[in-house]
Batch of 3 targets.
Target 1
Amino acid sequence: MEVSVIFFWVIYALIVISFLKSITTDLIKEKNKTGVALYISILLSVGYTFQYIHNYDIFSASWGIGIFVTIIVLSIVFNLLCILSKRILISRHIRKMQKKLKQTSVSDFIYYLMEKHNKYPVYVLHIPSNNTIEIGYNIMNENLVIGKGIHFRTLSNRSLYFTLTHPPLIATIKDDVFCTLHDYYNHNNETKSTIDNYISKIQDNHNTPWILNNESVQK
C-alpha cells in the first residue's frame, strides 16, 4: 500500500475517532454531531466525484491534508454561525418581552414568561448582599453548567456576566440565588411579591428596578 493511501486513511481515522469520542463524552451537541458527519460525507463525496470526472487521486497526501484543514475551517464557521444565531434569536425574544412587559399586567406577564420557559428559559438572579434582583436570560440559551460563565441579559436591559458556582436551585432567599423564575416565584409569598415589585418598577420606568426595597427611586 502506498504511503499516500496510508496517510489519507490515518487522517480520516483520526477524524472519525475524534468524532466518536466527542459523542461519548458529550462535548458537542446533537446539531454539531450532525454537522461534522455532514462535512465528512460531503468532502468524501466531492473527492470521489473529482476522482471520477477529473481522474484526481483522492488518496494523495495533499487531498488528505485538504480534508483535514477544510473540516477544521468548516467546524469553526459552523460553530460561529450557531453562536451568532443563538444571540440573534434570544436578543430578539428579549426585546419582544420588554415590549410585552409594558402592555401586559404583572401577573399575566410573569405567567407568560413561565409558559415560554421550555423554549426560552428565564431565570432570577437574587443577590441579598447587594440588595439586588434581576430577571433575565442566559443569552447563549444553553444548559447551565457549574463552573461555566453565564452571559445574563435582564429585562431591565442590563448585561451581566458571572460564573455559576452551585446548582440553579433555591435553598434560602437569604443566600445568593440563581434559579428559574418558576422556582423563585412559587417559593413563598415574599419571593412572589419581590418579582411583582420588580416587574412593576420596570413598567413605571424606574431607573434602578433591580434594587430591592427601593420605593423612592427616581422615575
Note: Residues 104-203 form one domain.
Target 2
Amino acid sequence: MTSPTASRPSLVPTRADLADAGYLVLLFSVALVGFSTSYTGWSFLWTGLAGLGLGLLVGHVANVLRQPLITVIALTVAVFFLLGGAVVMRERAVAGFLPGPDALGGLARSSVDSWKQLLTTLPPVDSGALLIIPYILGLLCGAGGFTLARRVRVSAAPVVAPALVMIAVILLGTTTPVLPTVLGGLFAAITLGWISVRARRRRRQLRDGARRATRVMSAAALVGAIAAITVLAGPVLPGAGGDRTVLREYITPPFDLNAYASPLVGFRKYTKDANQLHDQTLFTVTGLPEGGLVRIATLDDYTGTVWGAGGGSAETVPGQPKYGFQRVGSRIPSAASGAKSTVEVEIGAAYATADDVNAWLPTPGEPTAIRFAGDTAAGHADSFRYNLATTSGIVADRLRTGDKYTVDTIVDTVEVPTDPQPFGRPALEQSAYQFVSAKTGTWAGGATDLGGKLKAVAGYLRANGAYSDGGPGETEYLPGHSVGRLTSFLNAQRPVGDDEQYAAVFALVANQLGMPARVVLGAKPGAGGVVRGEHVQVWVELHLTDGRWARVMNTEFMPDRSKKPDKVPPQQFENTEASIVPPPNTVHPPSSLTDASRVDPNVGRSASAKDGDGWEIPGYLLTILTWAGPPIALVALVCTVIIGGKALRRRRRRRLGEPATRVASGWQEVMDRARDLGTAVPVGLTRPEQATVLGDASVLRLARAADATVFGPIDPNDAAATRFWASVDEARKQLGAGVGRLRRLKAALNLSTLRVRGS
C-alpha cells in the first residue's frame, strides 16, 4: 500500500524544469538588454530578473499542484502586488518590503501609467517607478513561459514568451539598437538550442506509433520558430536598412500647451514705462559664463494672433526622432558642443507671481541635466516637461518664490554664417506670414541671396524704425503682435514698437523668405547674475542646414531703445501700400497692459484644431477603459490562444495521418473533451472501459466502433474516418449539453489536456 506522503507532489524541480527555466532566463536577459538605451544604469536588468524569478516560481508551483490557468493568473497578480513594493517601490513599502496602502496604490497606478510615461520621457530615464515595466515583463515571461514549457506539447511554444518580451523592448525602446548583431544572433542561437532540447525530450516520451506525425509537427514547429526569429531579429541585423520602428515615434506626449498663454504677449510689463516688473528681481543665476543668456520660452508657432509654443515637433538634427514636451530623466540628450557649466537658479517673487511665465523654466545654454531642490523638488520633477527641439522646459505645477534648481548646461553660441542655408522648409503655414511679403520685397532692396535679404531687412528695421513701449505720450503704440497690430506696424510711415513687434515681424519675414525662424523670450543677467524686468529681451533664432539654431539678437533688427518716434500721427498709412489690407482679426488688439496679458493664445488658431469637435468619448468611459482595458485585453488574448490551440489540435487530429490514426485521434478528442469538462478518466483503461466511466451509451458505441476500426482485419478508408469524426462531433456536443454555460467556458479554457503527459 502506498503511503500518503509518497503520493504528494514534490516541489523539488526536475531536470526538465531546470532546463526550461534556464533557457527562459537566458532568452529574457538577452531581450531585456535592449532597454540599456532607455534606462540609466543596469538596475532595469536586475529588476526584470527578479520579476522573472518570481514568475518562474509561480509557474512551477502551479504546475506541480496541477492548477488551472486561472489560478496561474491569480497567483501572478497576487505576487505582483505582494512583492512589487519590495522590488520596485521600497520607499513606499512598509519597512521597505511589506505591502501597504501606499505601495499597493502606487503599483496599481504605475502598471497602467508607466508605459505611457516611458514613451513620453526623453531617454534615458531614471531608476524609479518606471522600473515596474521590466518587473512586469519578467513576471509575465516567467509565469507564462514556464507554464507553456511544462504544459504544452509543441516544442517551440514557450519561446513565445521571451519573443514577446523582445518585441515589447523594441517597441518601447529607442531608435538606437543595442548590439543588434550580437543580441539578434544570440537570441536565435539560444532559441534553436532550446527547441532542439525540447524536441528530443518529447520524442522520448511519445509512443512509437506516433513518431511519424510528431516528427512532421516538430519540423513544422521548428520551421515556424526559425521564421519567427527571422522576423524578430531581421530588423536589427546588418543590412536590414531603414529606420527602426518604435512606439515613441507615434505617441504624442500627453501635454496640453493650450493651458499656457503666450509669454510674449505680456512683454510690456518688463519695460520701464509700464512701471511693473522693470526693476523687480525675477530670478538670480549663479555660475553662468560672462555674456551668457537665459532662455525663458521658445515660441515656434504663429497663429495670426500670437507667437506661441507649438508642439515642438521640429527635428533637432537630420535623422533624429521628433520630440514634443516630454518627461526627462537624469540626463537630457544634447548634440551641442562647447564649454560645460553648472548654473544654479533661484526664482524671485516677481517671476513666481507672473502667471504668463511662472510655468516656464528659465534655462541657460543647452541643458544636459536639471535637478530641483527644496520642498517643491519632487512635485516639480514630476510635472517638468522638456522640449528637446526648442530647448525649453515647462513646470506644470508652476514655479514658486524661493524655488531653486541646478542646470548642467553647454553654452554653445551659434553665429549666423555669411551665407546661411535653411534646414528644410518653414513649419509655419504660408498663410501665417503671407501678409509680410510686400514689405519684405521692398525692405530687401537689391539683395539676391537669402543671407543678403535677411541682413537688408534687419538693417532697414534698425535704421528706419523707432522704439516705443507705449509710455506717456505714446499710448497709440499698442502692445500685441496679431496680424492687425503687425499690419499697422508694417504700413506705418516708419515702424514703431518694442522687442515684441520687431522680433515677431523679423521672424515672420525670415519664414517668408524660406528660412525657418522662431521667437525666443529670454534675458541677459545683470551684475551678480540678477535678472530684473529690464534685462528681459526678445531675439530670433534661424534653423540652419546643419540642424542647429543660430541666434539673431534684437540689436540686429531693432533700433536702440533711446530712438523715439516722431511726434506726428505715427500710424498714418502710406498710400503706396494702401492695397495691403489685413485679414479679419478674430481678436481686437489689446487696449491696455492688463488686456495684453489676458489675450487667449488659442483664439485664431487654425480651424483644423477644432475640426474634431463633436461627439467625444465620455470621461468616465475613458477612465474605465484606461484601467480595465489592458487586463481585459490580456485575459482575452490568453483565452483566444487557448481556444485557438485546441481548435488547431482538433483540426490536426481530424486531417493528419492514416484513416486508422485519425479514428484513434478522434477517440482521444472525445476523452479530452470529457476531461476538460471535469470528468476524471483514467489513462490506462481500454476505450470501452473509459466509455463506461463516462456512463453514456452513445460514447460506449463509439468506443467499440473505434476498436473495430483500428484493430479490425480490414484497413479503414477515408470515408470511414470521416463518418467516425461525425460521430465524434456529436459525442462532444452531448457531453457538453448536460452542463451549464460557465462549466463549458471553463472547459474551453482548461489546460489539463494540453499538458505533456508524464511531465
Note: The two ends are 24 Å apart (CA to CA).
Target 3
Amino acid sequence: MTQAEVDKLYTKPVVLSSKQYTFNIELPVDSIDGYRWFLISPDYDYIDDDSYSHESVDIQNSKWGGMDNFKLKLTKKFRKVPYKIVLHFECLRPFESNPKVLTKDVTVLSLPD
C-alpha cells in the first residue's frame, strides 16, 4: 500500500445527519505484512471511540489483506451544534523501530437540525 493509494480514500467529508451519532471509518490495510491503522488522539472531545475491529478479506480477490474498522460516536455535548472535525489516522508496523508511516485525514461534518 502506498501513500498515493491512501490519498484516494475518503476524498469527500463524512456527513452526519441530525440524528446520526455513531459512524464508521473503514480503512484498507496490508495486515499480512503487519500493518495496522491507528487513530491519533484528537486534542478535543468531539468524539468517543466506540469499538475497533479488523476484518481479513479474501486475499486472492482483493489487493488489501484486510480492513481496519473504527466505530466512533459523537459526544453528547456536541450533538446540537454544527461542526467540522478532522480525524488523523496513521498506518504503520508497530513492531518496527523506524516504521514507514502512511497518513490519512478524514473530515467529518455534523449537520444538526
Note: Strands lie at 14-16, 22-29, 36-40, 47-56, 66-74, 83-92, 102-110.
